[in-house]
């Protein structure tokens, strides 16, 4: 499914997402990168995994952020080493084990406090409902930014002056060689 359907604000987009979450059992959303379907389509897409129940059943939705499928993301789609598909399968099986243990012991809740910095994580149905049934992984994934420290401006200016002096010296030497 094209990513636009996962977060689109039109009434039709919201209705289909609400139906999947409320009237069926939405189990998972695998977000795929742009280019997976090249050369035919370049849009980013997602795989929705759900059980058609007609009576609901969604408690938690499992999200996975796929970065590579074993092929380049250009028009040639050549085989590459990076491939998330084996990890998706492994994480899906672990997901099933976790959900089964949750049914037996509600003492291990899957909650918002869960680490959402990794490739796979759960989002409770209530949070999805609160967010207008937005199923885009970017709505829920926590992005960790690294703080970059820069030299104070006075040091940067000093380095620039030294660089400029070196360039000036090299230009003088070049002019001397050419004359």
Please specify the SSE layout and strand pairing.
Elements: H1 3-7, H2 11-23, E1 25-32, E2 45-51, E3 60-65, E4 69-71, E5 79-83, H3 85-104, E6 120-124, H4 125-130, H5 137-140, H6 153-178
Parallel strand pairs: 1-3
Antiparallel strand pairs: 1-2, 3-6, 4-5
- Name the CATH architecture of the largest domain: 3-Layer(aba) Sandwich
Q: Which spans have pLDDT < 50 for at least 5 consecutive residues?
A: none
Number of strands: 6
Alpha-beta classification: alpha+beta
Q: Can you write the helix and strand succession as a string? A: HHEEEEEHEHHH
General form: elongated
Give the terminus-to-terminus CA distance.
Answer: 68 Å
Within CATH, the superfamily of the largest domain carries the name Vaccinia Virus protein VP39
Number of helices: 6
Radius of gyration: 25 Å
GO molecular function: DNA binding; N-methyltransferase activity; site-specific DNA-methyltransferase (adenine-specific) activity
EC number: 2.1.1.72
Catalytic activity: a 2'-deoxyadenosine in DNA + S-adenosyl-L-methionine = an N(6)-methyl-2'-deoxyadenosine in DNA + S-adenosyl-L-homocysteine + H(+)
Pfam family, one: N6_Mtase
């Amino acid at each position: 499914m094209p990513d636009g359907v996962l977060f689109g604000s039109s009434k039709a987009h919201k209705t289909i997402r609400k139906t999947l979450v409320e009237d069926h059992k939405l189990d998972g959303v695998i977000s795929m990168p742009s280019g997976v379907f090249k050369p035919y389509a370049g849009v980013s897409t997602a795989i929705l995994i759900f059980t058609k129940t007609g009576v609901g059943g969604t408690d938690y939705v499992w999200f996975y952020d796929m970065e590579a499928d074993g092929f380049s993301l250009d028009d040639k789609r050549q085989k590459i080493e990076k491939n998330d598909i084996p990890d998706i399968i492994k994480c899906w099986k672990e997901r099933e084990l976790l959900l089964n243990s949750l049914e037996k012991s509600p003492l291990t809740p899957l909650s918002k406090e869960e680490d959402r910095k990794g490739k796979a994580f759960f989002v409770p149905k209530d949070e999805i409902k609160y967010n207008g049934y937005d199923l885009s992984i970017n709505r829920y994934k926590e992005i960790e930014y690294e703080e970059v420290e820069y030299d104070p401006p006075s040091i940067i200016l000093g380095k620039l002056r030294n660089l400029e002096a070196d360039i000036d010296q090299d230009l003088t030497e070049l002019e001397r060689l050419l004359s």
